[in-house]
Design goal:
This protein has 235 residues and is of the alpha+beta class. The chain contains 5 helices and 10 strands. It has 2 domains: 15-168, Beta-Lactamase; 171-233, no CATH class. Strand 2 (90-94) and strand 3 (99-100) form a beta hairpin. The radius of gyration is 19 Å and the shape is elongated.
Length: 235
């Protein structure tokens, strides 16, 4: 006998909305003051990498301390050519050591990545809204399956960049899977293009596409304020 109730899909969506809501609100809490200070520095011709780093660091470290959500990395990604001394720049801190990411010291290739085409940068910059991107293998920062949440920084019509944070999918899976399982149904969380983020179904792996699978014919329930969907399947 099925244990499904009419509220199960809504309950699954609510879990997702609450889980990702806190990190989105954290970024929104500091994007306005940062945008104002960046705009002031830009007008003065003093918006440099060092200025961006010093301004963002306390906010990034506070974001890393966010309770109940395992934030792996946080910081600010400058808009292309907005800085006076660099074409692009990540003011980013990550890991248990809370160290600043220095791309050039990691690989001779990583500092040349054009992040302007990456989803976590491109979508919030074009829509002006917060965005949840992933799962994807983050070759820029962690080399792990990652979800990035980003919000745009805009002041006086000028796009200054995005504030963001990274969640490792392995940690998201560890936290969300038991909450989904408690609903008594198979729950699969997917991104906007139908790729699996996490699932209680052992047949579904992170990154799998639901297109062409049995899940493709089931309803996908949108999670409010988060560009993610849940699919609920009877056990």
């Amino acid at each position: 006998m099925s244990t499904r109730t009419p509220t199960t899909p809504a309950a699954a969506a609510k879990i997702v909305e609450e889980y990702f809501g806190d990190p989105i609100r954290m970024l929104l809490s500091w994007i306005e003051p940062v945008s104002h200070e960046l705009a002031t520095a830009l007008q003065d011709g003093a918006l440099t990498r060092a200025k961006l780093d010093s301004l963002v660091e306390p906010y990034a470290l506070r974001t890393l301390d966010l309770e109940d959500v395992p934030v792996y990395g946080a910081g600010f990604i400058a808009a292309i050519d907005v800085l006076s001394d660099a074409h692009s720049h990540l003011a980013w801190w990550q890991g248990a050591e809370r160290r600043q990411l220095v791309l050039a010291s990691q690989s001779v290739n990583k500092e040349h990545i054009d992040y302007s085409e990456l989803e976590w940068y491109r979508v919030p910059m074009s829509t002006g809204e917060p965005h949840v991107a992933g799962p994807y293998v983050d070759y820029l920062c962690s080399d792990e399956y990652t979800i990035t949440i980003a919000v745009p920084a805009i002041a006086d019509g000028t796009h200054l960049g995005v504030a963001g944070l990274d969640l490792l999918v392995s940690e998201v899976e560890r936290e969300l899977t038991p909450r989904f399982a408690a609903l008594g149904q198979q729950v699969t969380l997917t991104n906007g293009v139908g790729r699996v983020v996490v699932s209680t179904d052992p047949r579904c792996a992170t990154g799998d596409s639901v297109r062409g699978s049995r899940l493709a014919d089931l309803p996908r329930i949108s999670c409010a304020g988060v560009a993610l969907d849940v699919i609920v399947e009877d056990l």
